[in-house]
């Protein structure tokens, strides 16, 4: 996942970092690397802290990825603090970088994870990378969110294989339709 994150930081870093007069040109690459690392460590910290509801909402596309999102706000605070302390950037300059990068990067990660044309990167990979391999709590939260949005076909309170089988037998668009509902497509 770190490679995908790095690519997205490079993709969106032009406006938020390179064209930012508050950041000296010789620090552009280091600032982008720090921002990417801070985002990944922030996501891992949230998962380790059990903040599964907000993460699951973001991963399932049920919450908007903007500065009002608790995940984005938390990551923005982390990135702003790290950029300020490591590069001597003002709070305004560091916050501008965070606001210019984080929503776009998270949207890009979630879109890549949900894109069936990118089988090398999926939601399970994203959840595994965020949770450090201990993804059961986050997967449970994603399942819970799926249940809240009508994906719990058998009414057992969880979204699992039996729900997928039930969805297929009811001709509700098959497994693709089930996962389309789960990921907002």
Features:
185 residues; mainly alpha; 9 helices; disordered C terminus
Task: Write a short abstract of this structure.
With 185 residues, the protein is an all-alpha fold. The chain has helices at 2-18, 28-48, 52-59, 70-87, 91-114, 123-131, 136-148, 161-169, 174-182.
What does the model show?
This protein is mainly α and 185 residues long. It has 2 domains: 2-130, no CATH class; 150-182, no CATH class. The protein is 69% helix and 0% strand.
Number of domains as seen in the coordinates: 2
Cα Rg: 18 Å
Instruction: Give the DSSP E fraction (strand runs of 2 or more residues).
Output: under 5%
The total of helices stands at 9
Largest sheet data = none
Structural class: mainly alpha
The percent range for helix content is 55-70%
Oligomer: single chain
Average pLDDT rating: 76
SSE succession: HHHHHHHHH
Shape: globular
Low-pLDDT parts are 145-152, 159-185
How many strands? 0
| Distance linking N and C termini | 22 Å
Write the layout of secondary structure elements.
Blueprint: H1 2-18, H2 28-48, H3 52-59, H4 70-87, H5 91-114, H6 123-131, H7 136-148, H8 161-169, H9 174-182
Helix pairs in contact: 1-2, 1-5, 2-4, 3-7, 4-5, 5-6, 8-9
């Amino acid at each position: 996942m770190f490679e995908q994150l790095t690519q997205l930081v490079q993709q969106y870093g032009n406006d938020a970092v390179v064209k930012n007069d508050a950041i000296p040109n010789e620090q552009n690459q280091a600032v982008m690397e720090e921002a990417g690392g801070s985002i990944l460590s922030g996501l891992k910290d949230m998962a380790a802290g059990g903040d599964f509801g907000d993460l699951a909402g973001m991963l399932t596309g049920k919450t908007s990825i903007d500065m009002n999102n608790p995940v984005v706000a938390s990551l923005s605070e982390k990135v702003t603090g790290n950029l300020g302390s490591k590069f001597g950037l003002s709070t305004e300059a560091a916050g501008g970088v965070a606001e210019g990068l984080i929503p776009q990067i998270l949207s890009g990660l979630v879109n890549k994870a949900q894109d069936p044309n990118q089988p090398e990167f999926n939601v399970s990979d994203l959840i595994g990378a965020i949770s450090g391999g201990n993804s059961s709590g986050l997967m449970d939260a994603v399942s819970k969110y799926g249940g809240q949005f009508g994906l719990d076909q058998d009414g057992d309170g969880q979204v699992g294989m039996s729900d997928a089988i039930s969805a297929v037998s009811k001709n509700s668009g098959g497994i693709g339709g089930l996962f389309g509902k789960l990921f907002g497509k």
